[in-house]
Amino acid sequence: MPVLLARSTRRRLAGAVTTVLAVTLGATALTAPAYAAPLTSGALAAGTTADANPAADPDPITDPIAYPVGSRLVGAGVSGFLTTTNDNVTTFRRYTDGSGQAYDGAVYLRSTATTDFLVFRGSRTITQRNLRTNGVLDVAVGTLPGDAKWAGAAADAVFTTVTTEAGTVLRKHVDDVPAVTVTGLPADASMVMVTPATPEHAKVSFTQNGLGKWGLLDLATGVFTPGAAGIHGQVVSATHLAWMTDSTTDQGPRVFVADRATGTVVEAPVPAVPSLGNLQVGLVGDWVLWGQKGGMGFTQPSVHHAITAYNVTTKATVKVLDHAYEFTSAPDGSLYARGGLVGQGEGMYRVAATGDGSLKTVQVAATGEPTEVIVRDSTVPPAVLDFDPAGAFTFSWTLSRAVRNPKLTLRHVRTGKISSSSWTPSTSTPTVTWGDDNWEENRANGDYTWELTGEAANGIGPAVTARGSFTLVRKAQPHDFNDNGSPDLLHRDSAGRLWRTDLYYRPIDSWRGVHEASEKAYIGSGWGVYDRIEAAGNLGGTQVGDLLARDKSGVLWLYQGKGTGNFAARVQVGGGWQAYDKITAGSDLTGDGRVDALATDRSGVLWLYAGTGNATKPFLPRKKIGTGWGVHNDITAVGNIAGGAAGDLVARDKDGVLWLYLGKGDGTFAPRTKIGGGWDAFRPLIASGDADGDGRLDLMGLGVSHQSPKLYKSTGDWKAPFRAGEVMYVEQVTTNSSDFVF
User: Fold this and answer.
1) Which residues pair with 134 in a beta bridge?
2) Helix or strand holding residue 17 (H, E)
3) How confident is the model at residue 18 (pLDDT cuts 50, 70, 90)?
4) CA-wise closest residue to 516 among 526, 527, 503, 529
């Protein structure tokens, strides 16, 4: 089926060059023998030879040889290929085993159908070496007027130009044959350069009257035939000529193929969008190949990155490679590309036509680099991540190349809550610290899954994805009800509704201190039946904070924490608790690892309720441990804040003086130590647990008469157990005395 051109401008351009091509370029059959060097194995390019049978290939199949990372491919011959580096070191390597020789300076690989030649360009001599016979041809050149000048090489010939009275003369030099003058080249041609086209023809580029021109030189006869005007970037095979138009226009690059025998011109279906770089064109049999030159160096996606092949006879279009830095034609009509293919990796690929009209792509040499983005190194959480006391973990990856929009997503398995962090600039080293104030809403204990994703910055290959899982553990905090390691405040309004406000600690800047992490969460109604509610810590064995609530008839109820910020249905755990005017819990006072409770009756007796860890019967029978506690209007079990044997207690007397009672580890306390006065500026004192992530337990005071709430961070020193108070930025919790915060 003929190709239908979408734009009339394309029809006019194709028609304009058809006649010129038919007149100026004759057909030459390519009779090169079968490829002699061993080929190497590799999966076929997607869509190219899906029906081909690699086992039926007559060439032996071996593993790919090594390709030097960072080297450009500048030539492919019969027995080997040529690479060069940015520091001007050129190396010829053999297909068989990759062995080779490195050279300094300008070196070129030229080939006939059977033999390879290395051409060394010096300031006074051009040396051609026959790699099969080791024969040498030396051609003298110079810089003085009348001296021969280097003009290039093709097949077994070296070319020079000489300026005479008649104009520019192009000469062909081959071994054991006097120099031959090329006929047909305009005498006023300048900047003449000869490069290979086919084993029988060379392409000659030159300037005439300020215009770039070109043509083909028959190597056997020495006759030059001008090519069509206005055609640039030409690629010539034995049967076809291909060229392209400017790639920077709005309609993008255009690729045309002409049959050298008939002059028929066909336009390849190149996507009509601007190109991000120079398009390169190649020919293999009836196939024309194109793609942007530049390989992995592109920083943006483009439909032109992939090396695409179009069959001018069957109209089939297939992707050959995912990208290529450069093409070079081989003397047998195949094409070598330094590029990459997802799943096979970076290296050098040979693309050749098969007998059934398809293409076969084989990886000949490999760099060991992947074409797709992969994770080369990473720092990710261990199977069990302990957030005591540090409370943060830094994820980091080293990727094989840059990705766009990298994103780390964490999912808390139990709650299903998802949080993520992303990076706007492209990067190959995404790094993020989880647990700092950017992640305050999702640091709950339990199982997590994590996933890193990122799209290749240049769009080559699939997105990178890395996944894993871990379990986050912390010690239970007495005021942590959503199990994320930071304290919560519970607030009951005048209607009996219970609310929770999650807090987090910001360690830097002028807003250093405790902040609200989110809008207050509604827990439920009906809590007005209780005259006392206390945070109890891990009283029932669920590893999250629980609540004790006493109703107005003196019945004590346990609400086990669910780790989500809410609570399970209440369980009655005692009666007669109306005898107590103060109750506190959440600290291990006996040193057995279980949470205990304390209560003072109205006669000032202090009672210990040792914990059992059993939610249905959380306490052993009470034990009297002191008298005279009626002088205090608030007691708070703060945990082990002073480095002693067990949990400690702070008590505020009616004059606002705060006292420390160091726990002995048997449920009793050492004589009290004065902490300081002025603590009557607060309503309840709250054992917040470790509020700032330093591994020590802290104390919060909620202000009265519009005083700001404050955090008192512990020092670990019983002589001065707290630092100066830091203002807490907690605006959602009302200071109205008719409401209750605990």
Assistant:
1) none
2) helix 8-24
3) very low
4) 503
Q: What is the pLDDT of residues 492-545, one digit of tens each?
A: 999 999 999 988 888 777 788 888 877 789 999 999 999 999 999 889 887 788
The whole-angstrom separation of Cα 559 and Cα 615 is 9
Residue 26 has pLDDT above 70, yes or no: no
Q: Cβ(658)–Cβ(648) under 8 Å?
A: no
Report the relative pairing of strands 240-244 and 255-259 from DSSP bridges.
antiparallel
Beta bridge partners, 711, equal 700, 726
**How many helices (H) and strands (E) would you count in the chain?**
1, 60
Beta bridge partners, 257, equal 242, 266
Decide: helix, strand or coil at residue 642.
coil
> Using one digit for the tens of pLDDT, what is the confidence trace for 188-225?
999 999 999 998 999 999 999 999 999 999 999 999 99
Q: Is-cis flag, bond preceding 671, omega within 30?
A: no
- What's the mean pLDDT in 552-569? 93
**Whether pLDDT at 8 is above 60:** no
- Residues 693 and 489: their CA atoms lie apart, in Å, by 17
Residue type for position 242: A
In three state form, how does the secondary structure of 101-158 look?
A: EEEECEEEEEECCCCEEEEEECCCEEEEEECCCCCEEEEECCCCCCCCEEEEEECCEE
Cβ neighbours of residue 599 under 8 Å, at least 6 residues apart? 577, 580, 582, 583, 584, 606, 607, 609, 622
Tokens of 537: 């810590």
pTM of the model: 0.74
Q: How, if at all, do strands 211-218 and 223-226 pair?
A: antiparallel
What are the phi and psi torsion angles at 264 (to 5°)? -65, 130
Q: Distances in Å between the alpha carbon of 630 and those of 600, 651, 657?
A: 8, 11, 14
pLDDT digits (tens, 9 = 90+) for 101-125: 999 999 999 999 999 999 999 999 9
Residues 410-437 have pLDDT tens digits of 999 988 888 888 887 889 999 998 876 5
pLDDT of residue 407: 94
% of residues, the chain, pLDDT over 70: 88
Return d(Cα 90, Cα 101) in angstroms, integer: 8
CA dist 671 to 199, 660, 664, 678, Å? Answer: 104, 9, 10, 21
Give all strands of the β-sheet with 106-111 in edge-to-edge order. 106-111, 116-121, 125-130, 136-140
